[in-house]
Amino acid sequence: QVENERKKLAARFKRISGIAGGIVAILSLAVVVGWYFDIELFKHPFGTSVAFGVAFAYLIFGTVVALDAFVPESKPLRIAKLVVVSVLSVMAAVKCVEGVIGTDWDFLNLNLSFNSERMVPLLYPGIMTPDTSIVQAILGLSYLLMDVWKNARVQIWQLLSVSVVVTCLVPVFGFILGDTNLCSLWGCVRMPV
Known about the structure:
Blueprint: H1 2-37, H2 40-43, H3 52-70, H4 75-101, E1 110-111, E2 123-124, H5 130-148, H6 156-177, H7 180-183
Antiparallel strand pairs: 1-2
């Protein structure tokens, strides 16, 4: 009886996370479409511009979470998800290093414009604040650990996931309280709100 209730609860949480991932993917897709077709309303969904690279990364992360919840697992799909999440995590980690040492390695940016006449090229990862890149790197790492060590006794990925939530909530509380010291690691940013 208890085991059956646990399975129902796990299935419910899986659906909720899939819906949340789908919402993130849809909002991020709107931002990406806004950048491709120069729709200002979509590029600024919350009154603040969302960088193309950030929206692209969250489009992929949200899609992966939704796929986990609603698409039956297959070995090729699992490998594809792990490769994509690994690439996004490494790119985010590189952006962290760039922020720490104060440089910009342009050769690592992928031009996804598909239009040579575009005034502003659409780059991934492009410009990304260090706190955003830290969140993306930890998010990707926690997903990879969750997939690889499903049966481990100590679930380190859960601790990493909680650190992502805390990292995202600190600026939100800073913005709400008007305390710029809490707003972000690198200045007050409205986007986390």
